[in-house]
Amino acid sequence: MRKNIISGLLASVFLLSSSCQTNPVTGKKDVMFMSESQEIALGKEADPQIVAEFGLYEDPKLQSFIKEKGQQMAKVSHRSNLNYEFKIVDSPVINAFAVPGGYVYFTRGIMAHFNNEAQFAGVLGHEIGHITARHSAQQQSKSILAQGGLLLGMILSPTVAQYGQEVSQGLGLLMLKYSRDAERESDKLGVEYSTKIGYDASEMADFFTTLQRKQEEGGQAIPSLLSSHPDPGDRYNTVHQLADAEQKKQNLTDPKVGRNSYLKMIDGIVYGEDPKQGFVENQVFYHPVLKFQFSIPTNWGYQNSPQQVQMGPKDGSAVMALTLAPGASLQEAAQQQLQNYGLQPVESKQVTVNGLPAIAVVADPQPQQQQQQQQQPLRTLTYFIQHGENIYSLMGITTAQNFNNYFQVFSGSMQSFKVLSDPEKLNRKPERISIVTVPKATTLAGALRSHNMPDARHNELAVLNGMQLSDQLPAGTLIKVVKK
Ligand SMILES: [Zn+2]
């Protein structure tokens, strides 16, 4: 299934020889791990995988907005020769990331959190900056590999602990880590590029504040955009100073912010998890479209994407994933998947899981793979379960040593798989952002209350609006509220 993509990426990552090239941004000679054509090839291979992993967010006007602004900015960048692509992916995580070769992705989660076009443009410039300044292209591609490879990657190179940690923190995929210097340089380029297309780059600094507040709120950890910036206050001041200087330099006297136009554009955007992609409640995963449910082990973290649900304990000592299995029959599915993952069956039996036909298989990575890893041998338990047209695979992986301890945990979760029939779960709708006008002057808190937003969510909504609850809003101000 995914094997070819992964091994292709593997080849492009590990067969690279470093060479000396001129950096398009600094003009200096850099040691580059990739040639431009290698960067482009990597981007081309990664793009369909990223799109498959997240899905595109279906909103033509938002997609054409990012495309239009992205292309406009790419033209004035240091590498206007590349073929750029700009996409909004269907993920609630607040993130934006770039892949070598000219690929830039924003999540619907970050789109929901910007409060004007200028904030969006600043972050867009920052991400384009990572591409134009050729930041740690090798590190990026490894990260894609680590995240995209998932099960296969785990078996080939089982960094179980590290992987489990990321899963349990519930972070988005593609946790790219750049050096602090790279992030500073990208901030500078974000200021330069967004100023060049007429935006007020100081707004980017305000968006970093939103990210910081979001992180402090504790709901969601913020991936790459904040990861290498230990001092957000410093970053805030620096971006403001850079923005002022750049506006003077470019003689931009009336920089554009575009608050109302941006808010009107995102009116109705899905906010938070979209139940149609599956959702978790009280440690049970529900998929209303595919009509199944199963329990996630107690205290485990999880991560859901269109292709799989991954779960793991906080100490990273095991991992479990639900995927669709290939093949027309249970036997065929089991055989093909074990083969794809290079697993040898140790034991297998036919079982019934809440009335659904299934096969349970214990399997080990093939001996030569185990040796190559020079690590503790692994063991897997997989339930292949037939439900309607589909065959689902729930695979648990841990070390052979831990296997007996985890057997009950794995099989308990796997045996909880059943048909979802609760109409309340089947008909669950996502929350959406609704843009409303404040009819008369009041505080943000007052405005939220008049729109029946529960007090318990006021802080969350203040962050979403990039405001304080005590802020005075003149009549006619547009704000975000959330509605089903
Ligand atoms: Zn960055």
Automatic annotation (TrEMBL):
CDD domains: M48C_bepA_like. Pfam families: Peptidase_M48. Keywords: Hydrolase, Metal-binding, Metalloprotease, Protease, Signal, Zinc. Its cofactor is Zn(2+). InterPro entries: Mito/Outer_Membr_Metalloprot, Peptidase_M48. Residues 63-240 form the Peptidase M48 domain. The keyword Thylakoid does not apply. Residues 1-22 form the signal peptide. It comes from the Bacteria. This is Peptidase M48.
